[in-house]
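RNA polymerase sigma-70 factor, ECF subfamily: structure, please.
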Amino acid sequence: MIKRKAQILDELLVMQVRNGDQEAFEQLVVRWHENLIYQSFIRTGNREQSQDIVQDVWQWLIGHLHKLEDVSNFGSWIRTIVDRRSIDWLRKQKVNIELNNRETDGCYRNHDSDTADSVGSFEDTTEQSLCRLEQMMATLPAESKLIMTLYYMESHSIQSISNILGIPKGTVKSRLYHTREKLKELLKH
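Here you go.
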């Protein structure tokens, strides 16, 4: 299996962090922080809490990175930790989030309005399409939305998603299929 450059860089950074390199730790945070917040947000539906969860994971990681046996598994390992911490928060709060009943306040990602004004209509149309897709995905159950994000936006394999979420590969495949069908149906309307 050919490793991607990003994975090799993550492995190198993890090894450097294990050797006490603070700058390498900061680079890991920069590389992963926003994706982890978004992953937690998919579960919790709460941006502020997602930021707190991810911050707590980074603090925990400082003292526990040595527990990671294979540095090539860093991405799956940290995503699993964030996912489980997000689920723990939901359990503690006894919150049952129904994403289709939740109010949406636009797209999750922040967009710079000055940049949006300076780009052409193609970018505007693409931006609107992405926003519409995020709104449609918000109607999906959290688990399905997370699987779609990991598979299509983060390019994780079925096996990797199975490991992150602790569910069988067949369940991942089934949920991908059913979620794609649901999105197709939503696009028709």
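Notes: Residues 22-44 form the longest helix (23 residues).
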